[in-house]
Amino acid sequence: MKFRRGSIYEAFFISDIHYLLNKKIKSHKHKELFQLLDHLGKKEIKFNNVYLVGDIIENWFFSADRRLQRVKGKKRFNKLFDRLDKLASGAGKKYYIVGNHDTTSYLMRLSPKVENYLRERDWVICEKAENELLIAIHGHQGQYNKFTWMGSILVLRLLHVFASILPALFKFSENFYHKHLNRQDPSTTEETLHYYQRLSRLTHQGHKVLISGHTHDFLCIPKINIINTGDWVKSNSFVIQENKKFSGIRMVARKEFKREFVLKL
Ligand SMILES: [Mn+2]
């Protein structure tokens, strides 16, 4: 598929960028992400509403707050958000939906500096965005409750301390994190269905489309109006809304896009 110059769509959904990942972790598609954003920018493609569906910033491996205080760190934030801001037509809103990796706070709040940064750029910070057609939520709510969240954050904070005392422990922390905090994603069809049913219940989905990210699985389950936006770690995917039609699109190469699913309400 191709984007026609100057098109205005109803909404853009993207999640799980995990931006600012530590240099030690290189398995991400951020170069490709910037290719996408630059392409949309050059073609003057606009969206009335922009939804960042969580885990946009990677905050679990280090403090994004501390990064933002440094000039270089601020520049990296600007590099992403200048482009995301440009996608908005101005007719709607820009939503920053908080994902589990965006925060290391027990209350799932963004750090104050990141919050201020986003507010200055008119992002609406929320756990869930909802209108008459859709609900957008990151999705970790289907895996964590208040207590397991607090437990995970406690462990995570301890790992941060270990890694900062002795950098060699970073590897250990990373492995521990992958094994115990990051590998709770549903893998079988049954688990996947169960996970989305739980998410549907938690959000009181009703007849709306439920759009989430989190599991990094780019998918659409039409029967229960479920969409997952995928990620920019492996999938290179995003979702576009035109009226009552939702399209899942994958960037297969630079300037090359493939519509992988369509959900019509
Ligand atoms: Mn997540």
TrEMBL record:
GO annotation (BP), single: lipid A biosynthetic process
InterPro entries the record matches: Calcineurin-like_PHP, LpxH-like, Metallo-depent_PP-like
GO molecular function, one term: UDP-2,3-diacylglucosamine hydrolase activity
Pfam family of the protein (one): Metallophos
GO cellular component, one term: membrane
Key words, A-Z: Cell inner membrane, Cell membrane, Manganese, Membrane, Metal-binding
Record carries keyword Cell membrane: yes
CDD domains registered for this protein in UniProt: MPP_YbbF-LpxH (cd07398)
Domain (Calcineurin-like phosphoesterase) ranges: 13-217
Protein name: UDP-2,3-diacylglucosamine diphosphatase
